[in-house]
Structures are given as structure tokens and as C-alpha cells.
From TrEMBL:
Gene designation per UniProt: CRB1
Protein name listed in UniProt: Protein crumbs homolog 1
Protein family membership: Belongs to the Crumbs protein family.
Main location class: membrane
Taxonomic path: Eukaryota, Metazoa, Chordata, Craniata, Vertebrata
Alphabetized UniProt keyword annotations: Calcium, Cell membrane, Cell projection, Disulfide bond, EGF-like domain, Glycoprotein, Membrane, Repeat, Secreted, Signal, Transmembrane, Transmembrane helix
Record organism: Microcebus murinus (Gray mouse lemur)
Length: 1215
């Protein structure tokens, strides 16, 4: 029984060995020793033949890496750094050591420990550091919060709100919140904006006023001035002049009153603006009173008519008269009186109080000219008299303290009289006032009389209280109709001669004019001499009108015998005077302006006073002297040319209306019919006052048109020119710059400036001097913004001199070697500049006049300039043929080209132009220029601000600043330039090799891939060869549904695991034939043919006959088709060629089983040895085969077994 068990076990082992041998018939499979993952602690397992090797991670040893030796045992951390063992690796914690690095080997800068709080910027400075605090913080480490609202920074009533962590304002944009730097923000009231609400919003910019209304901007709002009569004849009103006003539709105002419509509470109405002389709701009342011949009008007054206590008493009226003396108004009682009257044509006001001081006010202007004049009198703490009209168009005013003290009601007089008193009475008898002299009656017209706010009309006067007073004004005095024509004053000097003429007018109605004398016409020189005939003239008045544009010239010389008594001339455009034995006198006001000026002298004993336009310029002391007969008055020059030059030279201009006391000194007496004038001596003095033709010399430049003025000219310049002679060209008026560029005037020319966009490796823009630069180049200015940590901005080189401006490690770097210096000057900005913000930069010599000096760098003017310790010369080498590379370098640029914005660069004030001369426009005319010599155009339009600062991307889109614009990367479900469009996930079909179906979420989709493709969008082609089973160095060819094996050499089968029989080539000229699988080529009558061996068929013996088709294997054995035969894979209890033997039955005797068991054990050992040897041989063969070689395949007759494509099977393993 025991022997039977042993035999059964041996049979079982033999069966297993048979199965193993059957599974790997060709020994092509290697046992994977790493399959069980024997290596520990993250080690890597490497499979070898019959064994494995573990590559241990750091810190582990052993055959299976099972021993942990510890990462920190070697103390790798330096300078007291703490070693942290993290399994199979370690790290060094350098906190508190003052060092940094992987092993704490590098001395850390002071800022490494991040000493600055609240997001402040730390700046290293040697062994110390400086903290640059954000707004809202202060202190050495920015640890203190500054309450910025304490200073009330918000204007216009804006509310100051401190941001986080002390406050938050709902609705603030994200730009107002930056963690750790709260600051403040001002919430502005409507109508204001700006950081501190300092900007008043111009509400008128939107043109809110309609229908021709004029908008007026107000603080925090606006108002519309609506037209009283629009173009269509319709009145408009309302806040925006949008309401049609109908109140004036029927023209209700009388006597040419102006109707002003309005709309109140939804009801239309109107208001009449009455002309002088009329009043009332529709201007129906006549308020003009005519006084003729001893007339008067009494107005009752008293407590009922008095204004409220504390208000001023007020009298207002308009009057018209040609009488110089007249009573206008009298008010009084027994204790006080007020009188308004005309005395000598001037307005007088007197106020008297019994036993007290009086007040007397006057306005020194003539009002008896027959014109209307307005007068107002107000009593309060002071008495005020004002006159308007005539010579007081802008108002004449006189004031004095009020004589009515003690709070007396100054308006409560019993009566007021206008124009005079009743006949046969005096003011004393009528009113009981003391010392009131009689006043002449008023003859003329009064208009719009109001006393203490009450308007006076004939209807308001009691019967019997007026005499010779009528409504309206039909009076026509001798001065009516302006008889003097505006050339003089109507003064009634004598009968038939009402006009006092203004110089130079004369005659009745001031129609005549004294003829002027022209001196120096068209470049001539001359003078006029007037011999005097009167004697013993001691008080002398001398006057004349002068017009000139020349800043020097003799005007007047008064000669007594051989002695010059007084001289007046023009010096530096101003009057000057000199008399013997006295210092000179110089005026303060210019007289050589081409206008007519009045010049006069007042000569008294011991004193000579000079006047210009009735204003005294001062006086000089002079010995007393008298004009005698035979003395001469010289005008414009002297007979002696040399002496004339000593007194300002000959006068050039016009002199007119010369008067000596009351006598006119006429240049041409017959022209005015004045026979009383002296006969003058005239030398080159012409009649009238014509001007020289100044346009003869063609003084206007640049296409200007000359227009002749009096002794002058005016140039009408074209749009591109300016100046007195159009000598200054305004080139920017011609719009010479291309779109996107701004024209900037420079001396004698213009430049087109813009911000250029650079895109990294797009190449440099090259400039060169035009060879005409003569100025010293001692500075460079430009602006830029970029996010590049390393970039080239400008480079120029002419050995040994060179200039280099770049960005290195985010800081601006400047290098210069110039002049005779052997050293390279270097400057670096203290702050980083690669933050995408705009920076203004200036490099300049500390001493521009020196041959060599230090240079300084200034960035944004926010920090002190950085100065160099090394001196260098100027940039004079750029004047010659030196190429200036901007944005990149020509060759050898290790820094990289600039990507960002770069403004126009100025070198010594001369621009580097990004543009050439625009076609069809003027070229740059200035002499000193840099020229762009590179051919490629420069992209402009770069924005100074971050294009994403306004958060243009919607719905969570990511904004990318492209310098001149922005780009939005939209989230799933959105598209468009600003991510404003919701999109369908399946549009436009994202599945490349598959069908799309929309998912539930917005823009979500699912791709169902076609066979042979995978990936989210079916974009990846499936490689079925990743885990192929092609053996014996065969090449795997992937297909859509699977893969096929391209067999090399003498192998065949689905996986190239079967050896071929040798092939035979035969044939003749008509037919070539190759017999495969050992087929013999035989010549038959029909031609060559292949005679196939057992198990093969086909014309070329290429078909393997399936011997398993008849099912030859018994007892459930599996049939395997081989070349020309088959093989049965039997179960554990069966054996034999066709599995016909039952090993578990009683078919064999015990001795046979014993012998068979012994024989089987020996056979099993031999099979195992053979299997190992076969595995080694197969491994060696794989090392040399498996790559595809077309030439070798052609030579060895390989082919792809395409009769069946198989999907990649599961990995086969030995059991």
C-alpha cells in the first residue's frame, strides 16, 4: 500500500514535469524571479537567469535590502544643521544655524531668515538688512500697523475705510486687497473719484443737456442752462432741458418784456423780466416819471413802510437830465435829514443829525449828460452811495460811517420828496429840519424809484401830493441823441457849443480832427520846429498824442536861446525827461507799442512834472524860468544830427494834437482852418499817420503770409509753423507719425515715440548715428516693463569701449567702459525690476562737463540713486559708426532677448526711433539723429499697465498679460476673447478617433474611442505590441484589433516559435517558384511544382495541415498542431501518444510500477537539467534577435504570419 502511494506521487510528479515540458516545448519562456517582489524598502529588482539581484536604496543593505543602516550615521549636515532621517533618504534642517544649502554649507544672507513681517520686502545690505514696508505698516521689521485713516486722507466727504485685518468693505475689487498690507480705501460720494476722492467727475462729459442746453459742471453734480428760445422757437426746461415749457406760448409780457417759462409741480407758468420803466406781473405798470418846471412828488413813509428791524434802508432810482444842479430826493423830519442832489453835474449825498456830525459823499463823475444813470443809497452800519452808467459802467462807490447811532430806525421819516418841494414852501418850514438850504428843482426823468422796497408810481401817490409830474419820459435835452458822436462830452460849455472834444477831435460835434505829423516815414529822418511868439509864460501846460513802435527817439526839446531847458525822449520804450541842473526822470510804462498815448508836461516855477495818459510819472526840480518870445519847441529831432543822437535819435512815428496851454500847435494849419496856429518849420514831416510797408522785405518764413500793420507786420503762419516770422516749425501739426505713435516736438524737428513690444528671440533693432551729432552724450533715459529675470536691453560696442544694459537675476545691470578708462564701470539696481510693472530709468554722468566721472542709476525715483565708485567717460563713441542693438545682441548673447515693453530710448536727449519716416509725410528735419538701420519693423502698442489689471477674463478665466493685449484661458464650458460665451462640450467634436457624447456638467463630454485608439480625446493610438509574445527575435507589428509577428530566419507560427524546414527555389524563365517547409521542387510536364512533405499543403507548401482537426487525443487531452504531426497534452492520470493510458488504474503490476517509478525519477531529473539549458540558450538568442532588418528578412526569406491576428494574451508563467 505504501509502495502504491509512492508510485502515485511519482506519477503525479512525472505528470507535472510532463505538463511543464509541454507548456514550454521550445524553452522560449524564462522564469521571472522578480515576479514575487523579493526586494524590500524600495529596492529595484533585476531579473537574471535563474536568479535576481536587488539594487538597494540609500541607507539599506542585504541580499533583499532588508537591513536599515540609517541615513544620518555619517553626519552629513554641517554647521550644526539637524539631520532628519526620512526612511531611504535624509534632509538637513538648517534653522538657526545661519547657513543654507543641502548640507547647510552656504552662509545665508540676513534676509534668509525672513525677518520682515506683513509681506514686506527685505533688502540685504552687507551684514544687515532693511525692510521696505507695504502701505499700512511701519517699524524696523514692518511689525506695526499704521492707522492711515487717522489723517483723514479722503476729500470731498469721502469715507475712509481701513482694509484687512482691521476692516473690510463689501464690494471692493480684488486690487484693493493684498494680504498683510491693509492700507485704506476711500469710498467717494457721488460725483467724485480718485484715490482720495480728489477728482471731480465731469458729469458734463456725457452731454446730458438736451435741446441746445449748456452744461455747467458742479462739485458732485451738474446743472443745465436751458436756452430761453431754442432754434425751433420752443422753450425747454427741466434738469436736462428735456421738458417743453408752454408758459410763454401766448406771449403774455407787455412793453417788450422778456418771458421766462417754468414748470412747477406739473403746472406750466411764466415770469416776465420787465425792461427799465415798467413793472408788474406782465410789465403793465409804468415806472417812469417826468418832472418839468418846479415839480415835486411826495411819498408817505413811516413805521408801516419801514423794513424789518436790522435790515438796511435802501433807495434806488434811475435818472436822466442835462441840468448840472438839481434835487433828486429829500427825506427828513425834525431831527435828521437825507438829501440826494446834483451839484455841478456830480452826485452828492448828505446826511445830517441834529446836534451831531453829518456825512457828505460824492461821486466825481459828470451825470448831467442827458443819459440814464442808476444810483443806490443804503443805510446800515455804513452809508453807501453807488452810481452806475455813463463813465461808471462798472460802478462807482463811496462809503462813510453812518451818522444814525443808537439803533434809530433810519428809514422811519415822515415824508420823502422827489424832484423838489411844493411852491412857496421850504424844507425848513415843511419838515422842521434845521439848516437845510433851498435846492433847485429837478428837470428830467426818474425811473424805477424804490424807497425801502416799495416801488413808486403815480398810482401809488395820494391825490394832491404831486405837481408837474407825468408818466413816461418824452424829454429831449440838448444832449439827447449824443450830439458829440462819442468823440467828446456834452457839457453845455456855451450856447451852440455843447461838446468838449476828446483829443485829437475838434469843431462842432467833434467831427474835425487835428492832422498828425508823420516822422521818419519809409526810413527818412526829420523834425518840426515851432517858434513861440508869447513872452513871460511861467505856468505852462504842454500836451500831445504820440504813436510809435520804435523803442527810442526824441519827442520834445524846449530851447530858450542857446540853452536847452527841458528834453523828453523815449528810452527802452519808456518816457524819460531831463532838465539842466536836475537828475533825470524815467517812466515805468511802455509807450512803444503802436498805440496812441497821451504825453503831457506841467511846468511850474521850480518844478516840471511828466504825465502819461493822465497819470503822473513823477517830477524833477528845475530853476524857475519863463518862456520868452523867440524860444523854440522842437518835436521829433533837432537840426544837429549828432546832438539828436545823444538824446535818443530821430523819432519815428506820429505826433498829433500838440497843445501849448490853450493854443494848438498845428503841423498843417490850413487843414483845420485854425489861423491862430504858429507857422512851423517841417523837415521830412508828412501829413497824416500812414505806416511803412513792412512786408516789402518778405519777412515771413515757412510759407507764411505777410499782412502789413502800422509800422509793423503780421505773419499768418501755416499749421506747422509759429513765431513772429513763422520761423518756428510745428512739425507735429502735419501728423507725420504712423498710427500708434505720438509726435513729440524736439528742437528743430520732431520724433515719433511709442512703446515697442519685444518677443524674446525676435532679434535686435539696430541703430546708428547719422554722423551729425555734436552734443555730448552723458545720459540715457527709457522706460520698460518685463517679467524676464535675464534679458538684454541695449548693447553697443566699439573696442575697447562698450555699453551694456541688461537684466540679470531680475535686477537692472549697467556696464560701461569708455574714454581713456581701463576699468569697467558697473551698476546694479537695488530692487528687482522683473515684476511686470513699468519702470522709468535714468543713467547719467555725475559731472557731465568732466572728461570722466562717476555714473549714477536712478530707477523710478523711489530710492536714492545708485552711484559708481569707478569713473568712466561719456558715450561719445556712439557718435561714430557704432551699432546700437536694442532688445537683443547680434551674436554671443548668453542673456537672451527681451520679452516685454520698451519705451523710446533717449541718449543725450536724442531718440532712438522705432519708426522710419512715414511715406508721404515730412522726414525728421533735425540735424542730430540716430537712424534705425535694421530692416525688420518694430511692433508697437505696448501698454504701460498690466493688461490683466482690469480683470478682463470672466467666469474664472486665467488672464495672461501679453504686454500689448491680454489672453484669456477659459475654464471648462466657456470660450470667447473674455470667456463670455458658454460652449457645448462636444463642439467642435473634440474626439479625434471616436464619438463624443455630452456629460452632465457644462462643457463636459465623454469620448467613445474607435478600436485601436485610447486617451481622453481618443488621440493616442493603441500599441498592442507593448506586451507581445513574439518569440525568437521576431518583430511585433501592431494593428487595429491586435498584433502580428514578423518572424526572422527559419521560424514560423503565430508567435514565431516554430522552426521551418528548409525552402527550395526552382523554376525556369517563365516561372519562379519557392517551395517552403521542406517541399521538393519537381519538374512536371506542366512546369515546376512543389511536392509537399507530411503535414503541409498548398502550391508552395506554405499551408500547415491541421492534424488536430480529427480530434485524435483521448480522455480530454488537448491537441497541439505541430509541423506534420500533432501532440496530445494529457491530464495527470493519463499518458500515451493519444492519452490512451490510464495511469491510476490496475493496468500495470506493482513491479512494473516500481521499475517505472525509478525510471521516472531519473527521467524527471534529466528533464529539469535540459529545461535549464534550453532557457539559457533562448536568452542568448533573444539578445541577438528581435529588431527588424529588411535586408536580412529578404535574405532569409522571412514573412509575417498574417493568417491570424491575436489580441495580447495574459503573461504566461511557468507553473
Amino acid at each position: 500500500m505504501a509502495l502504491r502511494k509512492i508510485n502515485y506521487l511519482l506519477i503525479s510528479c512525472l505528470s507535472c514535469s510532463v505538463l511543464i515540458s509541454i507548456k514550454s516545448v521550445n524553452c522560449e519562456l524564462e522564469i521571472g524571479e522578480c515576479w514575487s517582489q523579493p526586494c524590500l524598502n524600495g529596492a529595484t529588482c533585476r531579473d537574471t537567469v535563474g536568479a535576481y539581484v536587488c539594487a538597494c536604496a540609500p541607507g539599506f543593505l542585504g541580499a533583499r535590502c532588508e537591513l536599515d543602516v540609517g541615513q544620518c550615521a555619517s553626519r552629513p549636515c554641517l554647521h550644526g544643521g539637524l539631520c532628519v532621517d526620512a526612511g531611504n533618504r535624509y534632509s538637513c534642517d538648517c534653522s538657526g544655524s545661519g547657513y543654507t544649502g543641502t548640507h547647510c554649507e552656504t552662509l545665508a544672507p540676513p534676509c534668509w531668515s525672513e525677518p520682515c513681517h506683513n509681506n514686506a520686502t527685505c533688502e540685504d545690505s552687507g551684514d544687515n538688512y532693511t525692510c521696505h514696508c507695504l502701505p499700512g505698516y511701519a517699524g524696523a521689521q514692518c511689525e506695526s500697523h499704521v492707522h492711515q485713516c487717522a489723517s483723514s486722507p479722503c476729500q470731498a466727504g469721502g469715507q475712509c475705510v481701513e482694509l484687512e485685518p482691521f476692516g473690510r468693505l463689501a464690494g471692493l475689487p480684488p486690487s484693493f486687497r493684498h494680504p498683510g498690507a491693509p492700507g485704506y480705501v476711500c469710498t467717494c460720494p457721488p460725483g467724485f473719484t480718485g484715490i482720495h476722492c480728489e477728482e471731480d467727475i465731469d458729469e458734463c462729459s456725457s452731454h446730458p443737456c438736451q435741446n441746445g442746453g449748456t452744461c455747467e459742471n458742479l462739485p458732485g453734480g451738474y446743472t443745465c442752462r436751458c436756452p430761453l428760445d431754442g432754434p425751433s422757437g420752443t422753450f425747454y426746461g427741466g434738469r436736462d432741458c428735456s421738458d417743453v415749457l408752454l408758459g410763454c406760448a401766448h406771449h403774455p409780457c407787455l412793453h417788450q418784456g422778456t418771458c421766462v417759462p417754468h414748470l412747477r409741480d406739473g403746472r406750466h407758468g411764466f415770469r416776465c423780466l420787465c425792461p427799465p420803466g415798467h413793472a408788474g406781473p406782465v410789465c403793465e405798470a409804468v415806472t417812469t416819471l417826468a418832472f418839468s418846471g418846479h415839480g415835486f412828488l411826495r411819498v408817505a413813509s413811516g413805521p408801516a413802510a419801514a423794513p424789518a428791524r436790522g435790515q438796511a434802508c435802501h433807495v434806488a432810482l434811475r435818472f436822466q437830465t442835462d441840468r448840472p444842479d438839481a434835487l433828486l430826493l429829500f427825506r427828513g423830519d425834525g431831527d435828521a435829514s437825507v438829501k440826494l442832489e446834483l451839484l455841478g453835474g456830480r452826485l452828492h449825498l448828505s446826511a445830517r443829525v441834529r446836534d451831531g456830525p453829518g456825512v457828505l459823499l460824492s461821486v466825481p463823475r459828470d451825470t448831467s449828460d442827458g443819459e440814464w444813470h442808476a444810483v443806490e443809497v443804503a443805510f446800515a452800519e455804513t452809508v453807501t452811495l453807488s452810481l452806475t452808467g455813463g463813465a461808471c459802467e462798472e460802478g462807482c462807490l463811496a462809503q462813510a460811517p453812518s451818522p444814525f447811532a443808537g439803533g434809530r430806525a433810519t428809514c422811519a421819516f415822515r415824508s420823502s420828496f422827489l424832484g423838489g418841494f411844493p411852491a412857496g414852501t421850504t424844507s425848513v418850514a415843511l419838515l422842521g429840519a434845521d439848516d437845510v438850504p433851498p435846492a433847485p428843482p429837478f428837470e428830467g426823468c426818474l425811473q424805477d424809484v424804490t424807497i425801502d422796497g416799495h416801488r413808486v408810481t403815480l398810482e401809488s401817490v395820494s391825490p394832491g401830493w404831486s405837481l408837474n409830474v407825468g408818466a413816461g419820459c418824452a424829454r429831449r435835452g440838448p444832449c439827447h441823441g449824443q450830439p458829440c458822436g462819442g468823440r467828446g462830452r456834452c457839457a453845455h460849455l456855451e450856447p451852440g457849443r455843447p461838446c468838449d472834444c476828446d483829443p485829437p477831435h475838434a469843431g462842432p460835434g467833434c467831427l474835425a480832427e487835428h492832422v498828425a505829423g508823420r516822422f521818419g516815414h519809409e526810413g527818412s529822418t526829420g523834425y518840426a520846429a515851432f517858434p513861440l511868439e508869447e513872452s513871460n509864460m511861467e505856468n505852462i501846460s504842454f500836451s500831445m498824442l504820440v504813436r510809435t513802435r520804435r523803442p527810442s527817439g526824441l519827442l520834445l526839446a524846449l530851447q530858450s536861446g542857446a540853452r536847452r531847458q527841458v528834453r523828453v525822449w523815449i528810452e527802452h520804450g519808456r518816457l524819460a525827461m531831463l532838465a539842466p541842473g536836475s537828475p533825470g526822470l524815467a517812466g515805468k510804462f511802455a509807450i512803444s507799442d503802436g498805440h496812441v498815448h497821451s504825453v503831457s508836461l506841467g511846468i511850474e516855477p521850480g518844478k516840471i512834472e511828466l504825465y502819461q495818459s493822465s497819470q503822473s510819472l513823477g517830477f524833477i526840480a528845475a530853476p524857475a524860468w519863463k518862456i520868452q518870445r523867440g524860444d523854440v519847441v522842437y518835436l521829433g529831432g533837432l537840426p544837429d544830427r549828432q546832438e539828436t543822437q545823444l538824446n535818443g535819435g530821430f523819432f519815428k512815428g506820429c505826433i498829433q494834437d500838440v497843445r501849448l496851454n490853450s493854443q494848438n500847435l498845428e503841423f498843417f494849419p490850413n487843414s483845420t482852418g485854425n489861423d491862430a496856429s504858429l507857422n512851423p518849420v517841417l523837415v521830412n514831416v508828412t501829413q497824416g499817420c500812414p505806416g511803412d510797408d513792412m512786408c516789402k522785405s518778405k519777412p515771413c518764413h515757412n510759407g507764411g503770409t505777410c499782412r502789413s500793420l502800422w509800422d509793423d507786420f503780421s505773419c499768418s503762419c501755416p499749421a506747422h509753423a509759429a513765431g513772429k516770422t513763422c520761423e518756428e516749425a510745428r512739425w507735429c501739426e502735419l501728423s507725420p507719425c504712423p498710427p500708434g505713435a505720438q509726435c513729440q516736438p524736439v528742437p528743430r524737428g520732431f520724433e515719433c515715440v511709442a512703446n515697442a513690444v519685444f518677443h524674446g528671440q525676435s532679434g535686435a533693432v539696430v541703430f546708428r548715428s547719422n554722423g551729425n551729432i555734436t552734443r555730448e552724450l552723458t545720459n540715457i533715459t527709457f522706460g520698460f516693463r518685463t517679467r524676464d529675470a535675464n534679458a538684454m536691453i541695449l548693447h553697443a560696442e566699439r573696442e575697447p569701449e562698450f555699453l551694456d544694459i541688461s537684466i540679470r537675476d531680475s535686477r537692472l545691470f549697467f556696464q560701461l567702459q569708455s574714454g581713456n578708462s581701463f576699468y569697467v564701470l558697473r551698476l546694479a539696481s537695488p530692487q528687482p525690476v522683473s515684476d511686470g510693472m513699468w519702470h522709468e530709468v535714468t543713467f547719467a554722468m555725475a559731472d557731465p562737463l568732466a572728461q570722466a566721472s562717476g555714473w549714477r542709476m536712478e530707477v523710478d525715483s523711489r530710492a536714492p540713486p545708485v552711484a559708481s565708485a569707478v569713473a568712466a567717460g561719456s558715450l561719445a563713441f556712439l557718435k561714430d559708426d557704432t551699432d546700437i542693438h536694442v532688445g537683443d545682441r547680434a551674436t554671443g548673447n548668453t542673456t537672451g532677448g527681451l520679452e516685454g515693453c520698451l519705451g523710446t530710448i533717449e541718449i543725450g536727449g536724442i531718440h532712438l526711433p522705432y519708426f522710419g519716416d512715414a511715406r508721404g509725410s515730412a522726414s525728421r528735419p533735425q540735424e542730430e539723429q540716430f537712424l534705425r538701420i535694421s530692416a525688420r519693423s518694430v511692433a508697437t502698442g505696448c501698454l504701460r499697465l498690466n493688461a490683466c489689471s482690469s480683470s478682463p477674463c470672466l467666469h474664472g478665466g486665467d488672464c495672461e498679460d501679453a504686454y500689448s493685449s491680454y489672453h484669456c484661458s477659459c475654464p471648462l464650458g466657456w470660450s470667447g476673447a473674455r470667456c463670455e460665451l458658454r460652449v457645448d462640450g462636444c463642439f467642435p467634436n473634440p474626439c479625434i478617433h471616436g464619438n463624443c457624447s455630452a456629460a452632465g456638467a457644462a462643457a463636459a463630454y465623454l469620448c467613445r474611442c474607435e478600436p485601436g485608439y485610447a486617451g481622453a480625446n481618443c488621440e493616442v493610438e493603441t500599441d498592442h505590441c507593448q506586451r507581445h509574445q513574439c518569440a525568437n527575435g521576431a518583430t511585433c507589428l501592431s494593428g487595429i484589433h491586435g498584433y502580428a509577428c514578423l518572424c526572422p530566419g527559419n521560424f514560423t507560427g503565430r508567435f514565431c516559435r516554430q522552426s521551418r524546414l528548409p525552402a527550395t527555389v526552382c523554376g525556369n524563365e517563365q516561372r519562379n517558384l519557392t517551395c517552403y517547409n521542406g517541399g521538393n521542387c519537381t519538374e512536371l510536364p506542366a512546369g515546376p511544382a512543389c511536392l509537399c512533405g507530411e503535414g503541409f499543403a498548398g502550391e508552395r507548401c506554405e499551408e500547415d495541415v491541421d492534424e488536430c482537426a480529427s480530434g485524435p487525443c483521448l480522455h480530454g487531452g488537448r491537441c497541439r498542431d505541430l509541423r506534420g504531426r500533432f501532440q496530445c497534452l494529457c491530464g495527470a492520470a493519463f499518458a500515451g501518444e493519444r492519452c490512451e493510458l490510464d495511469l491510476a488504474g490496475h493496468l500495470l503490476p506493482d513491479d512494473v510500477l516500481t521499475a517505472t517509478g525509478s525510471l521516472t525519477l531519473v527521467s524527471l531529473l534529466l528533464i529539469l537539467l535540459l529545461a535549464v539549458a534550453a532557457a539559457v540558450a533562448a536568452a542568448n538568442k533573444r539578445a541577438t534577435q528581435g529588431s527588424y532588418s529588411p535586408s536580412r528578412q529578404e535574405r532569409e526569406g522571412s514573412r509575417v504570419e498574417m493568417w491570424s491576428l491575436v489580441p495580447p494574451p495574459a503573461l504566461e508563467r511557468l507553473v
